[in-house]
Amino acid sequence: IHTMVDMNFFKNKIKKFQEKKLDEILFKIQFHESTKKKLEEEMKKIGVKDEKLEKNILYHSQMVIIWRGNEKKLRKQIADNSE
User: Fold this and answer.
1) Contact 78, 26 (CB under 8 A)
2) Cα 32 to Cα 7, 49, 76, distances in angstroms
3) At what angle do helices 51-81 and 2-46 cross, to 10 degrees?
4) How far apart are CA 73 and CA 78, in angstroms?
5) What contacts 46, CB < 8 A, 6 or more positions away?
């Protein structure tokens, strides 16, 4: 019985940690998506190609891809742990 209590305790700790990590990941995705959108709107407003703006847009696009990948991996871990 004692071992079962310990296992549940650790499973709960892991679950809480994963939920916190997922919140952080979702925040980062939201941040990079909104920043990219603002930069795209700024680019549209000025109406000319701006290399610095293009690089920033590309950077934020890549970060969204990376964080979406992290989200997918973490959601799979969460699903695997809840079985």
Assistant:
1) no
2) 37, 21, 22
3) 160
4) 9
5) 53
48, with CB counted inside 10 A (0-12, 13-18, 19+), is exposed
pLDDT at 2: 67
pLDDT at residue 1 in the model: 57
Check residue 82 and give its pLDDT: 79
Helices (H), the chain: 2-46, 51-81
Amino acid occupying residue 4: M
C-alpha span between 51 and 68 (Å, rounded): 26
Q: What's the pLDDT score for residue 60?
A: 98
10-residue averages of pLDDT along the chain (83 residues): 76 93 98 98 93 97 98 95 78
